[in-house]
Design brief:
This protein is an alpha/beta fold. Helix content is 45%, strand content 9%. The protein has two domains: 158 residues, serine acetyltransferase, domain 1 (Orthogonal Bundle), CATH 1.10.3130; 114 residues, UDP N-Acetylglucosamine Acyltransferase, domain 1 (3 Solenoid).
Length: 316
């Protein structure tokens, strides 16, 4: 006779091997503290689904780059059909997720209009896809032209984490501009988990943007990045401080991250904090720590900045 299963042995009359009542109550109380005073509704039937949004992103990526992520053996004629069918499916699923996001964020009296609003936002998003695709094409070209190791633009699309992160970011940013709640952050953090590149969906990024290698890059919510900017791994474009309200809570949405003008290069490990401006054509060396603006055309290196910071006894 076989030994009794450890999972069954010692179960109580309620069918549980452990006394879960107090644990369940304690967990519920903690959850209640988290959501106390909020109008938002919780539950998987209401909240946007991360899995559904991953499916949306796969569909949108295939529609934006059908030659790379679409069906096998597409012809010019079948590509049009594939893109139309894939977009239709992805946008229908996105509309449902946008509805959930709106419903989650809405006050009770505004819930009735969420479904129509979701349709309006989905159509507005769809209308921006051609411009979004144009920007992504410029990013792919910048990756190919900016990296001597890139054998082709196809290699950049298939292999480069910076391109993967930018596909997600440009979609998330478009939704952020349309004021879709919650969903842009889910998309952005999904890309972060895949690539190690953390871009807030609020960041404004111009065309021909190249993130080389990419691991550890952080780009904050209120960053503004110009055209033809190139950054390397470990770069942080962050905030120097967080202004607080009268209750000691961080004020939301204030400009607090850097402005990076056109044609700037920022090398690995550089940290730039606060609402400073890196002027057009400037070059920021590796591991530089910056909390002040840089004039156009400047070349800032770690050694140069250290000498400037400590002249005339400063910092002693």
């Amino acid at each position: 006779m076989s030994a009794p299963s450890p999972r069954r042995e010692g179960r109580t009359a309620t069918g549980h091997a452990h006394s879960l009542g107090p644990i369940v109550e304690a967990l519920w109380e903690e959850n209640e503290l988290l959501v106390a005073g909020r109008a938002q509704k919780l539950g998987r039937h209401v909240l946007p689904s991360r899995l559904a949004l991953i499916e949306v992103m796969e569909g949108l990526r295939a529609a934006l780059f059908p030659g790379h992520f679409g069906a096998i053996d597409l012809t010019p004629e079948s590509t049009r059909y594939f893109v139309g069918m894939t977009l239709d499916t992805a946008l229908d699923l996105m509309r449902d997720q946008i509805y959930r996001g709106l419903f989650y964020a809405a006050a009770s009296e505004a819930e009735a209009g969420c479904e129509e609003h979701a349709l309006v936002l989905t159509r507005a998003f769809a209308n921006r896809l051609p411009e979004l695709r144009r920007l992504l094409a410029s990013d792919v070209r910048a990756a190919f032209e900016g990296d001597p190791a890139a054998g082709s633009m196809d290699e950049a699309v298939f292999c480069y984490p910076g391109i993967h992160a930018l596909i997600h970011h440009r979609i998330a940013h478009t939704l952020f501009q349309l004021k879709v709640p919650l969903i842009p952050r889910i998309i952005g953090e999904y890309a972060h988990s895949l690539t190690g590149i953390d871009i807030h969906p609020g960041a404004v990024i111009g065309g021909s943007f190249f993130i080389d290698h990419g691991t550890g890059v952080v780009i904050g919510e209120t960053c503004i990045i110009g055209e033809r900017v190139r950054i390397y791994q470990g770069v942080t474009l962050g905030a120097k401080s967080f202004p607080l309200d009268e209750h000691g809570h961080p004020l939301k949405g204030l400009p607090r991250h850097p402005i990076v003008e056109d044609d700037v290069v920022i090398y690995a490990g550089a940290t730039i904090l606060g609402r400073v401006t890196i002027g057009k054509g400037a070059s920021i060396g590796g591991n530089v720590w910056l909390t002040r603006s840089v004039a156009p055309g400047s070349r800032v290196t770690q050694a140069q900045w250290r000498v400037e910071s400590f002249e005339d006894g400063a910092g002693i």
